[in-house]
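Colleagues,

For the teaching module next term, I've prepared a clean inverse folding example: a structure given as tokens, and then the sequence designed for it. I'd like students to try predicting residues themselves before seeing the answer, so please don't circulate the second half yet.
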């Protein structure tokens, strides 16, 4: 076995020592909890008592649990609608803010500011805005002669209410789209102008293909975020009221772990969510191989 020179050994030891805090942190706070949750998902574990191995009973019970399917259905419904709406809204706003109108820097700042508001204060703020009787939103709708719905009390309007919050806080997605729009080669836009292309045609054949990697990235991040939605409905709809129409997958996982003390059951839910997100992300990436345009490819 070849021995390293003394100076190389010192460099290697120094590098390992500098990297050791990260490896220790990763092992203690990431690797161990992940593998521990996989083991606990196969156990009857309440935290207060030692874990008892029961095999796949937690998973079998989940697939026969009506609340599990209701929570999963609510989450899927929210994700299917909120992700496309969020992407289209963010891209449309970025296109408007990519013009050279006077004072555009101020407009960009104004539209980005809502995304800086912390999640819990934002949820509390929108509780007031969406109040069915005294909310500001319904006040303006009534002023326009439109009878506003009971946003937070009508099961048909709970998920649209959450989508409104998502659109209001899409500043980060908008900013990423704006940066990608400014990287679209001007030579392509000028060539499209010479060919007499309309604005809609340039958007379809030049802009969208050139920013398609960014659209793919935002779609994946939006999908993952919508499937894991928790904090806002947790604050705005305690216990998933009304009629559990806002009871999402992460809410049921949280309740199973910390309200019902069924940590093994919650761990099984977490691994099912991990598998679903993994499969969906893989599918989106495979689809993107055919539709996404990468420079230099």
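(Answer key — instructors only)
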């Amino acid at each position: 076995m070849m021995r390293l020179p003394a100076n190389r050994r010192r460099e290697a030891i120094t590098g390992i020592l500098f990297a050791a805090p990260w490896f220790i942190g990763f092992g203690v706070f990431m690797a161990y909890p992940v593998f521990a949750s996989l083991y606990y998902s196969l156990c009857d574990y309440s935290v207060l008592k030692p874990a008892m191995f029961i095999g796949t009973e937690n998973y079998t019970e989940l697939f026969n649990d009506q609340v599990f399917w209701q929570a999963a259905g609510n989450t899927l419904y929210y994700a299917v609608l909120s992700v496309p709406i969020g992407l289209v809204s963010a891209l449309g706003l970025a296109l408007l803010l990519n013009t050279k109108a006077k004072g555009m820097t101020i407009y960009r700042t104004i539209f980005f500011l809502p995304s800086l508001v912390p999640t819990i204060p934002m949820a509390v703020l929108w509780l007031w805005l969406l109040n069915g009787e005294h909310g500001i939103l319904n006040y303006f709708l009534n002023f326009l002669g439109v009878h506003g719905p009971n946003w937070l009390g009508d099961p048909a309007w709970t998920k649209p209410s959450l989508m409104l919050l998502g659109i209001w806080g899409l500043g980060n997605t908008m900013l990423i789209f704006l940066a990608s729009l400014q990287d679209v080669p001007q030579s392509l836009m000028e060539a499209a102008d010479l060919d007499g292309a309309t604005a809609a045609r340039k958007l379809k054949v030049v802009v969208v293909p050139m920013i398609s990697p960014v659209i793919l990235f935002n779609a994946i991040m939006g999908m993952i975020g919508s499937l894991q939605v928790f904090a806002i409905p947790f604050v705005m709809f305690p216990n998933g009221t009304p009629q559990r129409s806002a009871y999402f997958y992460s809410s049921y996982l949280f309740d199973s772990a910390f309200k019902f003390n069924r940590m093994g059951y919650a761990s099984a839910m977490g691994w099912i969510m991990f598998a679903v997100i993994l499969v969906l992300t893989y599918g989106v990436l495979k689809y993107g191989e055919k539709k996404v345009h990468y420079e230099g490819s």
